[in-house]
Each structure stands twice: as structure tokens, then as C-alpha cells.
Amino acid sequence: MSTLFHRLKEVASPTIGLGCMNLSHGYGNPVPESEARRALDAAFDMGYRHFDTATLYGATANERLLGLALQGKRDQVLLASKCGMAIDPELGKRVIDGRPETLRQQCEASLQRLRTDHLDLYYLHRLDRQVPIEESVGALGRLVSEGKIRGIGLSEVSAATLHRATTEHSIAAVQSEYSLWTRNPEIALIEACREVGTALVAFSPLGRGFLAGSIKEPASLEESDMRRNMPRFSAENYPRNLSLLEDFMDLAGELDMTPGQLALAWLKAQGEDVIPIPGSRSSDHMRENLAAETLSLGTDTITRLGGMMTPDQVMGARYSAAQQADIDTEEFG
């Protein structure tokens, strides 16, 4: 079993974590700081102990937010952040940079913003194709030796990249998009993770809100919401994808679960080394998601779900062509 799973057990936490990006980045305007603080306080009080952030989110605002929210609670949580992708203040756009000196600089800045002397898990947010993965991971390994990070993670990488990385240092976790309607990790990544003892941390386990059944019309999303530029949410593809939800919603009703809880229960059924980190701006939704920790599904239900929203049924790629160019993961043909 992965070292990440053992660390989660050490902090007496549920295995479902909290993706904190939504509060500051990606899904429309950032949540006001006072409201975001209240949501994070509520998340801790209801039992979340695995908090995930990144240098990129909100151009470092999300890390500063967590640094404030987790004061006095640091030894009770598993704190994860990411490096190698940041908003360049001069260019005003995101830049991928996996050079060792950049990763060290970003780590030290993250520690200051997060008000801590170490990170439990530190991910390379994106593979920098100009820098061999061994060099980036070697730099992170030196941060492990210095006690600044406890475990190394990789985000949105392929099985081949993971295997190359492990020749330099053990990898505690790989973070990848994984849900009932995004099954790319099943091509090769899950098997590779299990071969090397690495946890798979599943971001967007509710399909960026799709599986919660709450997005009826993508045009209603804020102009700055990144989903408006994702092919699956296009005016052409989304109505056809919505039709795939009908059987899923019916099954959730049969099982007396919310659709979001059913999506998380399916993901947890894929193995205890698969760790979902749903994100939300709502403390009510956070509580609903956390309740999936105790839900289990029968074999017949898991089989039934497996036949829904298969890659050949889902319309549209998960990223635009420009976004996909930065991704190293395997894709379905």
C-alpha cells in the first residue's frame, strides 16, 4: 500500500480529501476570502484532513488562503501542493517550468504562504517537456532529504513517465482526472501505480460537476469558468452527454444516494489506493461528498455503473487542443 494511504491513516482521516482549487481558481470568480475561510473551517470541523492546493491556483491566492485557514491545525492534516506551473506576473499567463532551481524556489515560497515548514505531498503539476522528468524529480528528492517535503507527487502524467520518475525517487502519488465519465487512468496509469506502490489521487471525481447533475446548461456558467472552453461542455456535445446521465440518476435514486455520492462510491470501489479529492465552494456539498466515505456498492451495481458513460459513449475530449498540449496522460483513440 502507498505511503500516502498510510499517512492518511496517521492523521485519522477519511480517505476522501478536499480539492481547494474551486475556491480561488478555474470555476468563475474567486470566492470572497471571508466566505472561503468559513468553508474551509467547516470542512475541517466535518472531518476533512487531506487538503490539496497549488502554486497556480488563484496565482498563489489559494495557498495563502489555506495558510490562514489551517493555522493551529497543521499537525492534524495532510497538506499537498504543487509546483512547476504558475502564473507569470509579467506575462499574465501560466508557465510550465520544471527546472530544478524553479521547483526549489516555488517550494520555499509555498512553505511561506502555507505557514508551514514542510509539505506532506508536493506534486510536479505538469511535465515540462524541455526538462527530463529525472531532473525535476531529482530536485524534489533533494527537498525530501532536506525535510521540506515528505513525499513526491506527479500530476497528469503517463505510465511511462511515472516509471521513468521512479528510477530517480519513489513517487507517493500521481494525481489525475478520474471519474465515471473520465476513465483515462484505466488505460495504463492505474496498473503502473500499483506496480510501483503509488497512490492514484483522483481530481474532478464528480466530472467537474457533471456527475452531480447540477449543470443543465453550460451557457449559465460564469464567463471565466474554464468548463465553457472544454469540448464536453460545448453546445454541440453537452446535450448528448446529458442524456447519458439519465440511467445514472435513476440508479442513485434507487440506492437512496445523491448522484455525487454514487460517483464517489464507484470511484472508491476501484481500490483503496484510489483517493478522491472532490472540490466544492459549498460546505453543504462538502458534507454530502464526505458522507460517501461510508457508502459501499454491491458487485452488480459496480458492473451496472461500469457500462454507463464509457469512453465510446462520452462526446468530446476532456481538454481543448491547447490544454491537451500540456498533458502527458494516455488518451483513448
Written description of the protein model:
The chain has 333 residues and is of the alpha/beta class. The chain has a single domain (3-213, 259-297), classed as TIM Barrel, CATH 3.20.20. The chain contains 13 helices and ten strands. Strand 4 (85-88) and strand 5 form a beta hairpin. Helix 4 crosses helix 5. The longest helix has 15 residues, at 100-114. It is globular. 46% of the residues are buried. The model has no long low-confidence stretch (mean pLDDT 94). InterPro entries: AKR, Aldo-Keto_reductase, NAD(P)_OxRdtase_dom_sf, NADP_OxRdtase_dom. Residues 16-305 form the NADP-dependent oxidoreductase domain. Keywords: Oxidoreductase.
Number of domains: 1
CATH architecture: Alpha-Beta Barrel
Give the integer mean of the pLDDT values. Answer: 94
Give a quick account of the main beta sheet: strands, pairing sense, barrel closure. 8 strands, parallel
What fraction strand?
5-15%
End-to-end separation in angstroms reads 31 Å
Q: How large is the count of helical segments?
A: 13
Strand order of the largest sheet: 1-2-3-6-7-8-9-10
For the secondary structure, the number of strands is: 10
The CATH H-level superfamily is NADP-dependent oxidoreductase domain
- C-alpha Rg (nearest Å): 19 Å
Shape: globular
Order of helices and strands: HEHEHEEEHEHEHEHEHHHEHHH
Q: Class by helix and strand content? A: alpha/beta
Do you know the CATH topology?
A: TIM Barrel
Helix share of residues?
Answer: 25-40%
Low-confidence stretches: none
What CATH first level would be assigned?
A: Alpha Beta
